[in-house]
Amino acid sequence: MHWPFCLSKCPYCDFNSHVRHAAIDEARFASAFAREIETTAQRAPGREVTSIFLGGGTPSLMQPATVGAVLDSIGKHWQVARDVEVTLEANPTSVEATRFAGYRAAGVNRVSLGVQALDDASLKALGRMHSAREALDAVAIARRSFERYSFDLIYARPDQTPAMWADELRLAIAEAAEHLSLYQLTIEEGTPFFGLHQAGKLKTPDEAVARALYDVTQETCDKLGLPAYEISNHARRGAECRHNLVYWRGDEYAGIGPGAHGRLDIDGIRHATATEKRPEAWLLRVETNGHGVVTDDLLNSEERADEFLLMGLRLAEGIDPERYTALSGRALDPKRIALLREEGAITVDATGRLRVTSSGFPVLDAVVADLAA
Predict the structure, then answer these.
(1) I need a labelling partner for 356 at 20 to 30 A (CA). Which of 43, 67, 72, 224 fits?
(2) Distance in angstroms (rounded) separating the CA atoms of residues 320 and 312
(3) What pLDDT, in 10s, does the model give residues 241-262?
């Protein structure tokens, strides 16, 4: 479920997020979410919901009552698993942290905090509105409020060295308990950082330093008990984000809200859906049509198999090539597999499961392209 509003737009962000200076009509949006949930459930009935992810934007700008209304709507139209994972993304500001108890009462049982850095200079450069102290205080509140919590950090920031990053990671792992999402800073077209980078006013680490930072990430997290289960996500055993595993394993998910994507199996065909990105335009579409869907593509067997390959190889657990064969109608090329094994980019275990190696992950796109060719 996508809540598209933020207090400000971070200069590196190309997500579907919007700043509104007037108050948001949360009751109207909650009604629209309920309507789109109902319509989606009519298209995909009889499902059991095992995970709910309230993403954004900044969902922690919602009142707890709005979150509760959304969760109630989901429970009204689908069966919800007793052990459902309900994650809410939150900014670690003191104002938003005061709502944590309300979110917990509404049914949220896991929070994901957008910390992004643990030093004030980096936070200011990234356009964040909280301090490092405020972030750690919010983590402490999350620890008291929720059974499970995680937070994000961005690395390969300007002037960041491997030694600096290792120190920051050790502090983060001491605070994180079970899960960290660690993303390398990428310069996305259309963002303020892109313009600065093009003008030479923003310098990110070169390729060699970026690779060293990636290696430090893997080594430090492995050593301290949070190995990577996905290329950018680290967790203690059993603490993986179940919702994200749905994406990477190629399972079904419903996308609700402005700019949300979904993958639904209807009459044996995989539908790739996307809703209107502009919040107010989405609202009008839902109120008129019962949903905000603007794209509803039917994926053929080859497209579905390629998506499975692209997503599944991000996971440390890898993929079962037989599932690829079942989806696509053709097997992966054994010659290409053999060559990638010789190069040390992949391994194939005794059961036939194919995994990307630690040396293959930094060139994952090339590995996927080679296998899919």
Answers:
(1) 224
(2) 9
(3) 999 999 999 999 999 999 999 9
3-state DSSP assignment of residue 155: strand
Query: Do 241 and 87 form a contact (C-beta atoms < 8 A)?
Result: yes
72 to 36, 77, 78, 165: CA distances (angstroms):
13, 9, 10, 42
Q: Which sign, positive or negative, has the C-alpha torsion 356, 358, 363, 364?
A: positive
Do the beta carbons of residue 54 and residue 70 sit within 8 Å?
A: yes
pLDDT category of residue 13 using cuts at 50, 70 and 90: confident
As a dihedral over the C-alpha atoms of residue 22, residue 28, residue 29, residue 34, rounded to 10 degrees, the angle is 170
* Distance, CA of 68 to CA of 107 (rounded, Å): 7
**Mean pLDDT along residues 288-300:** 97
Helix (H), strand (E) at residue 233: strand 233-235
Per-residue exposure over 273-301, b if at least 16 CB sit within 10 Å of its own CB, e if not: bbbbbebeebbebbeeeebbbeeeeebee
pLDDT greater than 70 at residue 94: no
H helices, E strands: number in the chain = 15, 15
Are 263 and 253 in contact by the 8 Å Cβ rule? The answer is yes
Q: Residues 152, 115: contact at Cβ < 8 Å?
A: yes
The Cα–Cα gap between 297 and 301 comes to 13
pLDDT (tens digit, 9 = 90+) per residue, 310-362?
999 999 999 999 999 999 999 999 999 999 999 999 999 999 999 999 889 98
Q: Which domains does the chain have, with CATH numbers?
A: 2-247 (3.20.20.70), 317-372 (no CATH)
Q: Helix, strand or coil for residue 20?
A: coil
186/366 Cα distance (integer angstroms): 18
Structure tokens at 243: 């919702």
In angstroms, what CA-CA distances link 162 with 173, 174, 233?
A: 16, 18, 19
Q: Which of 64, 44, 183 is nearest to 115 (CA)?
A: 183
Q: DSSP label at 71?
A: H
Q: How many CA atoms lie within 13 A of 218 on its CB side?
A: 15
